[in-house]
Structure formats: structure tokens, C-alpha cells
Amino acid sequence: EVQLVESGGGLVQPGGSLRLSCTASGFNFNDIMMSWVRQAPGKGLEWVSSISADGRTWYEDFAEGRFTLSRDNAKNTLSLQLNSLKSEDTALYYCATDNAGRNRGPGTQVTVSS
Q1: What is the pLDDT of residues 72-114, one digit of tens each?
Q2: Phi/psi of residue 108, each to 5°?
Q3: C-alpha of 58 from chain center
Q4: What are phi and psi of 30, to 5 degrees?
């Protein structure tokens, strides 16, 4: 059974940083592309970033230069470093095995507010 568990969210002021983590189990994590998606209040799922099995990364425009995605295949973990956070980054963040977020964990809440 695929299991994805996100952590690391919280309340942060604008301009602040957070590091989100995702622990994966139940599938061959080392072999597949992983993604982060998010859902802001009242909006649909939005792709954030993806990373290939060998570490190549892609970012949505709003994430480019502010967010950094990495993975540790030895530990089956995914990390998303969020820097220079803005109020519009407030959302529930999910890690997923697909970039549409169809197979995702329960999420971790990021709230950016002063």
C-alpha cells in the first residue's frame, strides 16, 4: 500500500522559510518521479514542483528561485525548502507520486501571515 506522510508545515511570517518533508513507503520510491502539489483555501490543486528519480527538478513559475526540491533515495524521503514565503503561498501542501496529485498524502498546512 502506498503511504505518503508530509510534515514540517506551520505558521510563518512573510519572507520567512519552512522545510517540508515527505516520508514514503509501500512502493519503489527510488524509481519514480515525485511531486509536490498544493491547495489554497477555496481553490483547486496546483502543481508546485517535481523531481525525477535521478534528481532532476522542475518548478512552477511561482516556485522558481524560492523553493528547492530534493530527495534522499536511501531514506525514502522528499524535502521541499520554502524560502521568501508570501501570503499567497498559504495552502495545504501534499507530496504525490504524480504531478496532478491524484495519489497524495494527507498534507501539511503552510500559513504565511504577519
Answers
A1: 999 999 999 999 999 999 999 999 999 999 999 999 999 999 9
A2: -135, 135
A3: 12
A4: -60, -20
